[in-house]
Amino acid sequence: MSPKKSAATAKTSFSRRDENAYLALKKGEERKLEAYCREYMDFLSAAKTEREAHDLAVAAARAKGFRNLDECLAAGKPLEPGTKVYRSCRGKTLFLAVVGKKPLAEGLHIVGGHTDSPRLDAKPNPLYEDGEVALLDTHYYGGIKKYQWVALPLALHGVVVKTTGETVTVNIGEDLADPVFVITDLLPHLGKDQAEKKLAEAIPGEGLNVLFGSRPSPDTEEKDKVKHRLLGLLHERYGIVEEDFVSAELEIVPAGPARELGLDRSMILGYGHDDRICAYAGLRGLLDLTETPEYTAVVLLCDKEEIGSVGATGMDSVFFENSVAELLALGGEARQELVLRRCLERSRMLSADVNVLHDPNFPDVSSPNNAARINHGVAIAKYTGARGKGGSSDASAEFMAEIRRVFDAAGVAWQMAELGKVDQGGGGTIAMFLARYGMDVVDCGVGLFSMHAPWEVAGKLDTYMTYKAYHAFFADAR
After folding, report:
1. Quick one: average pLDDT of 299-310?
2. Which of 254, 288, 311 is at the close of a domain?
3. Does pTM top 0.70 for this prediction?
4. Is 2 within the bounds of a domain?
């Protein structure tokens, strides 16, 4: 007979790995789960780029009473507890805050995710004609398996900025009445040499050329009649000329909306789960606060994570630090630099990024006792990095205990997870860029199948529990 369990041992733990968390859902919670996932799917279907995600987030924030922080600074009105503000960086990265009851110098509660996803970018001079078809030359962005991007419907999203300063928004391929695009692949009958190559070499980067058109213009003596006709169509619809490609940001992404997956509708198939699934959860967790938090709650929606968090809109820039300094200035804090350093060092952060799920099709890459399981809850990664934890931010045991306390008190289903076996590879997040201030940081997000593929898979329960986890973290008073 097994020994009698103590009360502490017998208490239900939401970190159990041996039970799907659907089995522990409270009465009435499934309705909330399904409603949240529907709203997330709408967001994911509309936010195919970091610019689109930014604009949707700003609109949602303004609808909840958030004001532009820079406008508040110009007005000179002091911040009171409960004040809601946002600050944008070049229309791509976003800082949102709800001012808490405690002084800013006591630290912030931060949830930070990224809204850029692996994709194909049009080159500065992208449009050319060859073999009597027009093609769009691309440069892939982030870590992709190039062979996954051929022979599937693609859409074109982005902006073109003219020398007049006018910005033209481009979105082709999402409406059912729109045409779509494709990258052609070699037929198997002639693919002997291709089949003998390694997967990484079968489709070269310079082979990711998007089929853009094939009908020639009858009204020109120019050599490239198909290209000429397409330029005419672009000018007719958008008022742009070929030279405008130089000042454009055009992204090629999978065409079509996010869909429910599985006969039981328990999963979500969509482009850009990494990392819009966590970014949206952080945004909603902040917007759904109904009471003024003890600590100022902050959401960061960052750009450029997939290529190292570089550039003016990446987490390695000083945008976040500057935004906190502006928040302090509006709060009337004296000795700004010292207060800023104290605020950052005393802050706590959930690095909101995805993890990998144990995939029975590829079991050899999973760490048997430390792999996330689908619908077992939000995945907490004490550290990420590669092999010997290179490039990671390793959360302290003390902060891990605090996160356990917060999630358990809120009834959040959670699990511990590593990104695969030790020597198999690894990955990084924005955690280390915030940890350098001395604050406590831990990675925490949704586990995925097929991460970085054109279509990724997430469990609905994990999706909802991640939102619930972030909301609880913002509301925590300790």
Report:
1. 96
2. 254
3. yes
4. no
